[in-house]
TrEMBL record:
Regions that span the bilayer: none
PANTHER family noted in UniProt: CYTOSINE DEAMINASE
Keyword presence, Hydrolase: yes
DNA damage is among the record's keywords: no
GO MF term set: cytosine deaminase activity; isoguanine deaminase activity
EC number assigned by the record: 3.5.4.1
Name of protein: Cytosine deaminase
InterPro entries (UniProt xref): Amidohydro_3, Metal-dep_hydrolase_composite, Metal_Hydrolase, Metallo-hydrolase_Enzymes
Gene source species: Acuticoccus mangrovi
Record keywords: Hydrolase
Domain Amidohydrolase positions: 187-390
Length: 417
């Protein structure tokens, strides 16, 4: 197959600027064979100057929480209400069948929209861990030919036992990564150190939820960086959210980011969910918008990815794991434009590298022919419409890009546990 006259952003051609150059992309045996300057001829698919990007990599999601909103809404849209509502739904409804149905619905949507790899956090508070992790392993195997799936445990570090060995054994036994919510308890430095030492001894990466608040006094991110430097951590530590940096004094935030860069931490920003949750007070317009200091991080060489986070659950009432929506809205909210520069990589190439998925996020000879083609020819066209007419190519073949119908989940709202 040849995709002719496709506009590939410079970010995916090792260029530094905003230009779009026209290429012909030849595909053989499910992989990219050649990427050559467009010859001006038609191919099996004539892109007619439409933008072509690698399939998306969504590295921070919650597939096990997804789509519970119809039976467990958030009464006021706040973070604390989301925690309570999700906990109530987990206890009442999260059987293996329920978790599987919602996970697979989310994966079907993401696949249709052009996502090739996903990392999902999995609520791992006992006894839910004994339900959700076996389901995750089965779903990962069932979807292996469509979506590369990684799992990360999710619980508050304050609830973890001092001996982390059994936790690591259980999670890695299912092929997962250990993660945690890090909150500013008095002993958080020691808890972080134990997590890092245990992971370092086992040669494992870590993925944390950090500073999901706009309280400027909260700065666990800096403690993660300090402990990573002290331990000499050699793997990848990903810190998601990091919202409090938006509210901290410039000089203080700069000091923290210098340490983050020195420690080699990777950051993932979740602007859609954090826009929904942060600075929410009844009857008051929000003043500070959700996100983190992505430009300041990138300027220091810190790897920054941008991802979906929650979908239709108490933490975010909307979303459908469509990375085009995430890309479009993040561009507006975080000003990833003028210049666009390398920011398109934040939705595919960079998260793929952080996740250790070397083949993903590239349009180059030898890479999987996992591509998304738009009729849009410029960024203003791409971000002005929802791109429902995109062409999704997986392993060199055009797939049906129709997301699943919500009615497929209707039985979950009426059936008992």
């Amino acid at each position: 197959m040849i995709v002719a006259n496709a506009a590939i952003p410079e970010a995916f051609q090792e260029g530094p600027g905003d230009d779009l150059a026209l290429f012909d992309v030849s595909v053989e045996a499910g992989r990219v064979a050649l990427v050559e300057p467009a010859a001006g001829q038609g191919g099996d698919i004539d892109a007619r100057g439409g933008i072509l990007v690698p399939a998306f990599v969504d590295m921070h999601t919650h597939l096990d929480k997804g789509h519970i909103w119809p039976r467990q809404a958030n009464p006021d849209g706040t973070f604390m209400s989301a925690l309570q509502a999700t906990g109530e739904d987990r206890v009442a409804h999260w059987s293996a069948a329920d978790v599987r149905a919602r996970m697979e619905f989310g994966l079907a949507a993401a696949y249709a929209y052009g996502t090739a790899a996903i990392r999902t956090h999995i609520d791992s508070i006992p006894p839910q861990d004994d339900i959700s992790w076996p389901v995750f392993a089965e779903v990962r195997a069932a979807w292996a030919d469509r979506v590369t799936l990684q799992g990360v445990s999710l619980m508050n570090a304050a609830s973890m036992a001092e001996d982390l060995g059994p936790l690591f054994d259980k999670i890695t036994g299912f092929g997962g990564l250990v993660g945690a919510v890090l909150t500013p308890e008095a002993d958080i430095a020691e808890r972080i150190r134990r997590l890092l030492v245990t992971a370092e001894d086992r040669g494992l990466d870590l993925d944390f939820h950090v500073d999901e608040t706009l309280d400027p006094s909260v700065n666990v991110l800096e403690e993660v960086a300090r402990q990573a430097i002290a331990v000499g951590f050699s793997g990848t530590i990903t810190c998601g959210h990091c919202c409090s940096q938006m509210a901290r004094p410039e000089a203080d935030a700069a000091r923290t980011l210098d340490l983050v860069a020195e420690a080699g931490l990777a950051i993932v920003s979740l602007p859609l969910c954090n826009l929904y949750l942060q600075d929410r007070h009844a009857g008051r317009t929000p003043r500070i918008r959700g996100g983190t200091l992505v430009h300041e991080m990138a300027a220091r060489g810190i790897r920054v990815a941008i991802a979906s986070d929650n979908t239709r659950d108490p933490f975010y009432a909307y979303g459908d794991l469509d990375m085009v929506e995430v890309w479009r809205e993040a561009t507006r909210v975080l000003h990833l434009d003028h210049p666009v520069g390398l920011w398109p990589r934040a939705f595919s190439t960079t998260p793929a590298a952080i996740m250790g998925l070397a083949e993903h996020g590239r349009i180059a000879p030898g890479a999987p022919a996992d591509l998304v083609l738009f009729s849009a020819r410029h960024s203003t066209e791409l971000f002005s419409r929802p791109q429902i007419d995109r062409t999704v190519i997986r392993a060199g073949a055009v797939i049906d890009a129709s997301p699943p119908d919500y009615c497929e989940l209707d039985a979950l709202w009426t059936s008992p546990r």
